[in-house]
Design brief:
single chain; about 70 residues; Structural Genomics Hypothetical 15.5 Kd Protein In mrcA-pckA Intergenic Region, Chain A; four-stranded antiparallel β-sheet
Length: about 70
């Protein structure tokens, strides 16, 4: 049996990967302070799994989660 690649990305990693924050510590702070929305709802869990089609809003800009492989 072959394993499938991960089909999600964690919120804190999404913010870092796309350059919306500089460090993991910054990612933790902005998420826990309620400054990030996922699908138009405030999200305070750093480990929130994001799947293709989810929308992340930060600093007034919305980003669509696309292929996460």
């Amino acid at each position: 049996m072959t394993r499938r690649k991960q089909d999600y990305i964690c919120l804190q990693n999404f913010l870092k990967f796309y350059g919306l924050v500089q460090t993991g510590g910054e990612s933790k702070v902005v998420i826990q302070e309620g400054l990030v929305k996922v699908n138009q709802e405030v999200e305070t869990r750093r480990g929130r799994k994001l799947y293709p089609g989810d929308e992340v809003t930060y600093q007034g800009k919305t980003f669509m989660v696309k292929d996460v492989h």
